[in-house]
Design goal:
Helix content is 39%, strand content 13%. By secondary structure, it is of the alpha/beta class. It is globular and about 65 Å long.
Length: 331
Amino acid sequence: MSSPPTGPGMSPATGHIPVMLREVLATLAPRDGGIYLDGTFGGGGYASAILESAACTLWAIDRDPAAIARGAELAARHPGRLHLLQGSFGDMMKLLGDAGIQQLDGVVLDLGVSSFQLDDPTRGFSFRADGPLDMRMGAAGPTAADLVNNLPESELADTLYELGEERLSRRIARAIVAARAEAPITTTARLASIIRGVVPPDRRPGHKHIDPATRSFQALRIRVNDELGQIQQALEQATQLLAPSGRLVVVSFHSLEDRLVKRFMMGCTGRMPAPSRHDPSSLIGHSAAAYRLLTPKALRPDADEVDANPRARSARLRAIERLNLSGDALP
């Protein structure tokens, strides 16, 4: 196994290695004097690299108070250039507008859970170590324990199926409801044990071992944080904030995120499939696309990066650029 990558933005000593950093920087192409947004500050890997690559100004958003607190040291190293905002990236227009920022030269979004959150048992994101069943990226709202102990069985099953793509969602939901009748489910270890008790491990030849609890934990995390809703809002607002030639770069980590990003970017660039000639909408003229697709195919991490950082293996990078059309209005 090769050593973890090092360089601008890399901080393996803290356990945080930003995924596809070289590709993100090459696609975002920060320039001197530009104004950029890192909508998912996390461990600050992208932010640090962006600030070091150009004499630009960077705004950074994170809903996790701990991430904002960690960012103070990086802000001190780049006085007047890094500005931290606590909140959800789906509210970026309001957060930036309140700070007087109306336009950006680039936006980067890393849709994965940060290493700091995954590796802290008290946050409840992972079943690798026991901890409270929380999963909130921020400090407010219902926890994963609230969901597993209070959702009706059918709604719990639908959540696991739709957000975790879990084929055995109904079996798992039944087991959870039976277990919570005996005692509330409050820890990651107990929930994982319940799931493993009814979902056999995947032993098929050639298939990498995935813990039976993985998809269910993903589903609960997505629902607790309204991740897909936040992503949709962030994509829409980011495109409205982009200046001509501004770029939106998004790194996603599972199929639900990637499909949402791909569909959005295809729509922005006019690459959606043409409607049927029997569809009345086919008779309506369509204006020229205001964006161009920078990634006809999603970029993937190379083998060396996956060897050094296994969490990168499912990453996909997609990007679009705002065209400089004469007289075009913000979408």
